[in-house]
Structures are given as structure tokens and as C-alpha cells.
Design brief:
Blueprint lengths: L1 H9 L1 H25 L8 H22 L7 H4 L7 H33 L10 H5 L1 H26 L11
Amino acid sequence: MMKILDFLNNKLEMWICVILMSAIGIVLSFQVIMRYIFHSSLGWSEELARYMFVWLVFIGISYGAKVMRHIKIDAFLFLFPKILRPYIVILGDVLSLVFAIAVIYLGWGMVQTQLMIGQLSPAMRIPMWIVYLAPIVGFGLASIRLIQGIIYHIKHLKDGEGDPNAEIEQ
């Protein structure tokens, strides 16, 4: 059970991104082969690749939060005295968490609308709520990672250790 939890905590987003990126490459390569060698285009391949890319981006947001590699303005951080920098990092994580919760809330409304309407994708005929669920899942996972980061930084405030840009060690 601990191995499963360890995998979910440490590797889940990375493996989902690897699988999605590989699948996108395979689908688009297959489309190119079909189009230029067999002169027959697949109607669904671009749509599938597009929707996988959407999921890849939102899961990647969570992975970026986990490894603390999101775009930051480091120059802004260095404007503050060294003693205040960890607090600024925590404030940034809290603001990111507020944004993530707002995206989850607004995204849920969009998913509910799609469930009521019952819209299907044009080529593959999959329910569009599946595509609209990506921001909720991605920012939901990012919220968990941001909370982990906030806890990590607060724990390390007392001992004065901890690089504000270091990956969260669980």
C-alpha cells in the first residue's frame, strides 16, 4: 500500500505526462504515415491529439507545482531582504492556491453545463465534459502540490533551511 501511495505522491503526474506525450507522438506519426504514404487521412487523429494535449498541459501544471519550476520572477524575490524571502515564497504559493481553487470552481460550472447540454466532439463523438474536466483535475492536483509546498516551506522556516526553489521532498 505504501508503494502505491509513494508512486501517487512522487511519480503520478510525471508518468501521466510521459504517457500522454508518447500517445500524441504515436497518433500524429500514424496520421502522417496514413496521409503521405497511404493517401488516406484519419478524421479523428488531430482531435484526439488536441484533447490529449489539453490534458497534458493541465497535468503538467500540477507537475510544475510539485517540482517548483513554474515561471517566477526571481528578481522580484531578490528585492527583499534574505530573511523575508521564505515568507514571500509562501505568499506566492498561497496566491497560486487561491487561483487554483478559483479555476476549479469555475471549471466545475463549465463541466456541469457540458453534462446538461450533452455536447459531443465532432470527430470522435466523445462527451465534451471529459475535455472540460482537465482544468479541474490539473488544478486539483496542483492545489495538493501547492499545499504540500506551503507545509514544506513553513516547516523549514524554523530551522532556516530549505531552498525556496527546491523540489518538495516527501
